[in-house]
Amino acid sequence: MHDNIESHLVEKRIFKPRTDFAKNARIKSLAQYQRMYRESLRQPAKFWAREASELVWRARWKKVLEWKAPFAKWFAGGKLNISENCLDRHLTGPRRNKAAIIWEGEPGDKRTLTYQQLHREVCRFANVLKRNNIKKGDRVIIYLPNIPETAVAMLACARIGAVHSVVFGGFSADSIRDRIADSGAIAVVTADGAYRRGGIVPLKKNVDEALRDGTSVRRVIVFRRAGNEIHMEEGRDVWWHRELEYVDANCPPVPLDSEHPLYLLYTSGSTGKPKGILHTTGGYLVGVYSSTKYIFDIRDEDIFWCTADVGWVTGHSYIVYGPLANGATTIMYEGAPNWPEPDRFWKIIEEYRVNILYTAPTAIRAFIRWGDHWVAKHDLSSLRLLGTVGEPINPEAWMWYYKNIGGGRCPVVDTWWQTETGSILITPLPGAIPTKPGSATLPFFGIDPAIVDEKGREVGANVGGKLIIRRPWPAMLRTIYGDKARYRQQYWSEFKGNYLTGDGARRDEDGYFWIVGRIDDVLNVAGHRLGTSEIESALVSHPQVAEAAVVGRPDELKGQGVVAFVTLKASVSVTGGLKAELREHVGVHIGAIAKPDEVRFAEALPKTRSGKIMRRLLKEIASGARVTGDTTTLEDFSVLAKLAESEE
Ligand code: WTA
Does the beta carbon of 278 sit less than 6 angstroms from any atom of ligand 1? Predict the structure, then answer.
């Protein structure tokens, strides 16, 4: 039995940064990246102090890092306000009248807020929070659609030192209740309803339901978005627009300790209750500021679009804090990518002349499935850089993105990170690092990752193992809210003093990182440990396949058998020989050992709201068991029933 995760997928394509891109980029060559990377590891205090000095501090830090593992203090002794850095600092020059947020609602309504306008809205809403007795350190739940007010509410909390916890608008009353109970929040900011695929999601009703049996919440502030009828609880609920009538726009930012909590973001562990990931102020700001600057190489004239929902960490770091700290123009879109038709994204890119697009592999695979003609209808020539995040991207999906969306002209940055890491940790720099489809390439500045075996020994090239990070970084989580023991246990105990990511990965002969997915998803077939993502990539490289999810099921002979759930492209119909053909295809691309024992065609795969495939559910289906685990994060419940029927 081998201990290491085997890796069989070989990707030979390599894309060097184009000279015209590199020439104008901040980091222009591999040599420059290597020089700065070495400096960032040898002299981290010097490196990060230089980055931090580009921001506004009310009191300079005394020490860049105080590290008493596993507890870090970054820029200890420093004082600052993140909303001042995202807003006020841009008001003294020409950025004052530049678009900060360009927003489009699902029904097609549009708004643009300049930095000055956004600043004014944030100050007014911060005064509304104060008027409602919300103070520094209080926790505030934000349960809103992807609208500018979500960013306004976040920045207003940050301005007065309240701690926000955004709950994704697709979550249910139960999820809100759990998060209120864990955080002890005293207020909720919500809307009457949210638009989604033409319908209205009753946000306020969900909040009412969550609060029904009494909680710590004393105040609910309601933004009118969808105009649907709602109940307002006397003495508890107030309207956002009415509250604004009582306040002015004067609200100086409160200087906060660098380690003052900025936000909590709940992330589901594979089992157990959601963890409240705590991020703080100074280190987080420096992390998202510098990663946005170098990785997206963002320019004043750029229009940057991260398609995530603000409710996820990607939205926190790369719709709101990272771009605004850089004085960039960030696009926000409220709705679904296929509403009213599957070309909504391309329409938006064409209309606003978007330059940088940052999206998820799950979306890319959906676009592939819907067909290239939706893309071909639109002029995407404004794009100059593409990014992905959230899952390993299959090389074929990468190639499609590169060719069909980027026109073969735009670098693709495949960015690896987590809710816990706060900012991107492994990624190409678009003007410097040659890319290989499917690899997140090399570590960002200051990040020291390694791949280790069960005993914590670093493994050699092309050997799979566990991905760890060997030293703290500025935007890292500080703890799990209210549970230091779980924080220590979960992330820092297996390899003492090292951060355990929970992902499996390998490094190739060039030192490039290839993430193979969550360790829990690794299969053990006849003594071979196989990463599910490689088998999935092999399947997706078949011209008729749109998406694949691979899981194991108990097998007396081999330990585990391989079961593949496959969705086909919209134009493809199932033929008799296709299953056998797909098994052969995997055999050719990876090896006989990885051939699925069973292939099942499905209309759709079960996914979380953030687009990750829920393999846990598929495992239960594959082994013939009833689905018993928690399904509250599932995006579309009907998928489960259909999958059970997909049986041979
Ligand atoms: C996965 C999202 C491969 C990984 C920012 C990680 C990725 C988890 C990539 C975190 C990538 C994210 N390549 N896998 N570029 N990006 N992942 O907390 O398994 O929603 O641990 O944060 O997504 O998901 P989370």
Answer: no
pLDDT above 50 for 289: yes
Q: Is 423 in the pocket of ligand 1 (CB under 6 A)?
A: no
- The matching CATH number, chosen from 2.40.420.20, 3.90.950.20, 3.40.50.150, 3.40.50.12780, for 84-275 is 3.40.50.12780
C-alpha 16/C-alpha 258 separation (Å) is: 39
CATH topology agreement for domains 84-275 and 522-645: no
CATH of 522-645, one of 3.20.20.70, 3.30.1490.10, 3.30.300.30, 2.60.120.460: 3.30.300.30
- Return the closest-CA partner of residue 494 out of 466, 515, 473, 522: 466
Q: How far apart are CA 341 and CA 364, in angstroms?
A: 15
pLDDT band at 1 (very low <50, low <70, confident <90, very high): very low
Paired with 514 in beta bridges are: 506
d(Cα 216, Cα 88) in Å, to the nearest integer?
33
| Summary mean pLDDT of the chain | 93
Q: Ligand 1 within 6 A of 390 CB? A: yes
CA distance 291 to 428: 11
SS3 state at 267 = strand
* pLDDT at 378 (0 to 100): 98
Contact 501, 469 (CB under 8 A): yes
Task: Report how far residue 159's alpha carbon sits from residue 145's, in angstroms, rounded to the nearest whole number.
Answer: 21
In this structure, what DSSP letter does residue 474 have? T
Q: Which residues pair with 79 in a beta bridge?
A: 59, 257
Confidence label for 163 from pLDDT (cuts 50, 70 and 90): very high
Residue to probe by mutation, ligand 1, list 515, 519, 613, most atoms within 8 Å of CB:
515
Which residue has a Cα nearest atom 15 of ligand 1?
416
Treating both helix axes as pointing N-terminal to C-terminal, what angle do 30-42 and 44-52 enclose, rounded to 10 degrees? 110
Can you say whether residue 525 is alpha, beta or left, with left for phi > 0 and alpha for psi between -120 and 50 degrees? beta
Give, using CA atoms, the residue closest to atom 11 of ligand 1: 416
Average pLDDT (263-284) is 86
With a pLDDT cut of 70, the percent of the chain lying above it is: 95
Distance between CA atoms of residues 439 and 461, nearest Å? 14
CA dihedral 134→137→138→139, nearest 10 degrees, is: 130
Peptide bond connecting 606 to the previous residue in cis, omega within 30 degrees of 0:
no
CA separation for the pair 24, 536 (Å, rounded): 37
Phi and psi based region of residue 456 (left: phi greater than 0; alpha: psi -120 to 50; beta: remaining): left
The protein residue whose alpha carbon is closest to atom 25 in ligand 1 is 418
pLDDT for the residue 411: 98
How far apart CA 577 and CA 261 sit, in angstroms, is 57
Q: Are 309 and 146 in contact (CB under 8 A)?
A: yes
pTM: 0.91
Average pLDDT over residues 246-255: 98
Nearest atom in ligand 1 to the alpha carbon of residue 392 is 3
Read off the pLDDT of residues 331-358 as tens digits, 9 standing for 90 and up: 999 999 999 999 999 999 999 999 999 9
Cα(323) to centroid of ligand 1, in Å?
A: 20
Q: Based on C-alpha coordinates, what's the Rg of the chain?
A: 24
Instruction: Give me the residue spans of the domains in the chain.
Output: 84-275, 522-645
Reference 472, options 405, 531, 425, 528; nearest CA is: 425
Measure the CA–CA gap between 535 and 538, rounded to whole angstroms.
5
